[in-house]
Write a structure and sequence with these properties.
By secondary structure, the protein is an all-alpha fold. About 90% of the residues lie in helices and about 0% in strands.
């Protein structure tokens, strides 16, 4: 009887570990999206400074970052298992 209870508890622990790993992986993906959205704008600031333009590359960077971010969100949403 105790073997059955212990086996069930071990299965539950393994299930919780798998879920925790999936949650961590999802959090990393989402934080990566934030980086992908901000990084092109930061590069745009540097390019504007380098070439002496006024917000041209920043705007392009923001647009590129937004496009990359939404594309990644769509990819994550299509792969996420909501069970």
């Amino acid at each position: 009887m105790t073997d059955v209870i212990q086996k069930k508890k071990t299965e539950e622990d393994n299930s919780n570990e798998d879920r925790s790993r999936k949650d961590i992986a999802l959090a990393v993906r989402i934080s990566n999206i934030g980086f992908e959205m901000v990084f092109p704008a930061v590069i745009g600031v540097g390019l504007d400074y380098l070439f002496g333009t006024v917000a041209l590359f920043v705007v392009l960077g923001v647009l590129l970052g937004a496009a990359l971010g939404f594309w990644q969100l769509i990819r994550i949403a299509s792969k996420t298992d909501y069970k």
